[in-house]
Amino acid sequence: MKTLLFIILLASNAFAGPLITGGSSGDAPSSCDTSNIVFWWRAEALDFTATAPPNDDLDYSAGNPSPTVNGSLVVSEAAKKYGTYGIDFDAAWEFLYYATPSVTLDDEFKWGGWVRITTWLNGFFLFQIYGNSNNNCRLILTGDDELTLYWYDTGAERTTWTTTDANLTTGTWYWIEAAAKPSTNYREIWVDGVSKGSSSGAINTFATAVATIYMGDLIGSSVDVHMDNIIISTDSTDSFTDCKDEEEWPE
C-alpha cells in the first residue's frame, strides 16, 4: 500500500510542472521597483526595438532608443553577464552615447551596471551624464583598482569622491552603482551592494539640462572592459538589489 501511494505521488508531481522559486521575470512576480527607472539596457543589441515595456521586455529607454557608436564597438557573447550578449569595449576610442532629451538627471540619479575589467584602463568611463563640457558627472576607473565619481557644474570641478577599498580585480564581474543628489550634496559608490563611502562636498545642479549619457573609452588607450544590464533611475535612493539580476522587464 505504501509503495502504491509513493508511485501515485511521484506521478502527480511529474505532471505538476516545475517548482516556482522566484528569479527572472516570468517565474514569479518580481519585487524590482521600476517606477523611477528611465534607462535599462541588457545590451542584447546596439539599439532598442521599442520605447517602453512590455512591447520590449529586454531594453528600455525613456529617451532616444538608439545610441551613436564610435569605433567598431559591438555587443558580443564573450562580454555577456546575462542573456546572449554584453557590451564589448576592446579597442581605443570605443564608446557610445544615448541622447536622452526626456530624462532629467541633473537633479538626482542612480546608476548601476555589471562590469568586468579584462584590461585595466585608468580614466575609462563607466558612464558620464553630460549636459555640456561645463556641466557633467562621470564615474571612471582610477588608481589601478578603484573608482572615482567626478562632478562638474557651471564650469567648476567640485569635490570628487574616490573609493579606497573597492579593490577591483581583472576578470571578475562586479555590480557597481553610483548615486548623486545636488540638493543635499550627496554622492555615493557601491560595489556588490556594499557602500564604498560617500561625499558631502558642495555640488550644484547643472546649469543646463542633461543631454547625453556616455559609456566607454573617451581617452584613447588600450582597453578591454565588458558591461551588461545597465540601469539608471531618477531616484538616488532606489535599490537595485532586486533588479540587477533580472533578465527581462519585471512583471
CATH class type: Mainly Beta
Q: What's the helix-strand series?
A: HEEEEEEEEEEEEEEEEE
Mean pLDDT: 83
Q: Distance N terminus to C terminus?
A: 45 Å
The largest β sheet comes out as:
9 strands, antiparallel
Radius of gyration: 20 Å
Structural class: mainly beta
Q: What are the low-pLDDT stretches, counting only 5+ consecutive residues below 50?
A: 1-29
Quickly give the CATH architecture.
Answer: Sandwich
User: Level of helix content?
Assistant: under 10%
Coarse morphology: globular
- The total of beta strands comes to 17
Query: What is the fold-level CATH name, i.e. the topology?
Result: Jelly Rolls
Please state roughly what percent of the residues sit in beta strands, choosing from under 5%, 5-15%, 15-25%, 25-35%, 35-45% or over 45%.
35-45%
User: Given the structure, what is the number of helices?
Assistant: 1
Task: Give the number of domains.
Answer: 1
